[in-house]
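Summary for the steering committee. One of the milestones for this cycle was to obtain a three-dimensional model of the protein with calcium ion bound, which we needed before selecting residues for the alanine scan. The sequence and ligand used are listed below.
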Amino acid sequence: MRMQLPLISVSAGSAGSSGASESHPGGRSALTCRFRCGDACFHPAPNTSANEYVGDVIAGALSRRSMMRAAAVVSVAGAAGAGLASPVAAAENTTVRGRTPSKAARGLRFTAVAPNTADTVTVPDGYRQNVVIRWGEPILRGAPAFDPEKQSAAAQAGQFGYNNDFLALLPLPGERGRQILVANHEYTDEVLMFRGYDAADPTREQVGIAWAAHGLSAVVVEEDRRSGKLTAVSRHPLNRRVTATTEFRLTGPAAGSALLKTSADPTGRKVLGTLNNCSGGTTPWGTTLHGEENFNQYFAGAGRATDKRYGIGAGASERKWERFDKRFDVAQEPNEVHRFGYVVEFDPYDPHSTPRKHTALGRFKHEGATVRLTRDGRPVVYSGDDERFDYFYKFVGSKRMKHGTGRAVREHNLSLLDEGTLYVAKLTGDSPALEIDGTGKLPADGEFDGSGEWIPLVTATGKGAVSHVEGMSAEEVLVFTRLAGDKVGATKMDRPEDIEPNPHTGKVYVALTNNTNRGVGTNAPADEANPRSANKHGHILELTERWNRADSTTFAWTLFLVAGDPNDPATYFAGFPKDRVSPISCPDNVAFDPHGNLWISTDGAQLGHHDGLFGVATKGERRGELKQFLTMPIGAETCGPLVQDRRVLVAVQHPGEISGASVEKPASTWPDGPGKIVRPAVVAVWRADGEDIGV
Ligand code: FEO
Ligand code: CA
Ligand code: CA
């Protein structure tokens, strides 16, 4: 299954929060809401479809397993409340389920970091860290050194972008100790970038800097031989910036559609730029995928009726880009907004390649996109639509990946995501609806669990596409994918973020960050897959595809983790004793370490401390033992975790993003101390003794 380029890892990233003060409905700081997602949580949830919820579609009978458990189970929720020890650190030696395993799962043998509000990256005892690269560091030939007082669009176009999110590391054959780091730059925080920024009247140069600070960076990094330290190699020929003005190719069956034609591009096949790239994935054929997430916020003017589902605002946009390029004004250029909201594919090995937007994977607020192969070598891509009450999707390709290094092989593999079937998930709980009361109390069968199906929406072939949705053409399904999900009755979820298959077990994990509107007012009520009303802390769903095949159209599911303070009865850690786990809130990006443990970064933690990175065992006696590995500085979200044998890599996104903060009045002094501008950056963490992480 492996290709010529031995991939090292896959991961995910995202955007998000202070974890402390003035939180907004979604749990983040007001400044994060404003710049990251265009205050999405202040608007009504855009999914007003009359879809049934999980409780409506309960299978009539309890599963056999449910019946057997029903008599014996005492709700974990009811039993957990009193007398718990401090949930801060997970003990290395503890009695678990009547036995005494000697140690935490391999890969998680470190002393858990206590939750805190320190303005720094705190790592476990015995671990070290370095800043690999910061916003503004020059990576291309000719780019100047960073000077925040003299920043220009031209300088930024050759420098590392802002608000690093998803991270990938790819091998660099022939250059010992070097890898290619690919990073997303999700969005810009103008008030933290520009002294004296006037949001009502941004300058052309500021807008140009913001365009150049979005997008992606590829930068070669070099390992220190004696540690896990990484440093960026500036001016390497593979270093590259992709920005909001880089040329992209639209591919797949909607390319060339009338829905995608604009006055600047009558072909409907050529787009400038990528926006709000949140998380992503690394493909087995050596490219990276990047989800265009909250793209709607960059567009001004009322859209078509169909675009209301995507939250296009009626007035001016936050950043006022429409004043400098009319394509950002939907009233003047109605189709430009249809050209964002896709999964982007980038080839880091070809610095002259034109990146692609894959229409076959649908258009929505893609949190990310992660890939695995079917047994016969076809790609399967999972992607969540990060919005309250929105859906998650799977694409199953019809063409097999080829092995080899030639140009023809590479071209073939770059077309793999243009043909296949896009599905949306529908989940059914196995417990009676009455047992799901919105408090998080476990039902009588002891688990939030059930079955699910992947409902086909559209099949793309080499000759076009076929819609499986009544009343919608294939092109409409691909461009207005949310509406297609509504029509087929997909399950409304609590903000589906990263989705990642466990390479050790094949089980698939879906992070659901939170949804404070669940069960509130006329919004959809709690159901077995989203069991808490006003869900502040989120949960993680574990899917087992039928026969453990990536191309199955049915699956079983269970909630692996129901997040929050372990002292809160409405939490669940896969049945692991809750006095032995770290508190966690708002799971967002997920990744796997080489041992098969799940690593989770958080966005907008609502427990009074900063966001962080956590590892949790997914199998064995320690399944559910969750331990905090690091914490973020003030205002920052943990993104892009990558866990290699000897190194953990994280993106520190939006440090200092606290309401009221500005360049003049910073809320954080990370990473360079007092008097220096706050800068998003990538951090590497390793063991001081040179041994592997967590063993
Ligand atoms: Fe960019 Fe869904 O976080
Ligand atoms: Ca995210
Ligand atoms: Ca159940």
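Key point for the committee: Residues 1-22, 55-101 have pLDDT under 50 and may be disordered.
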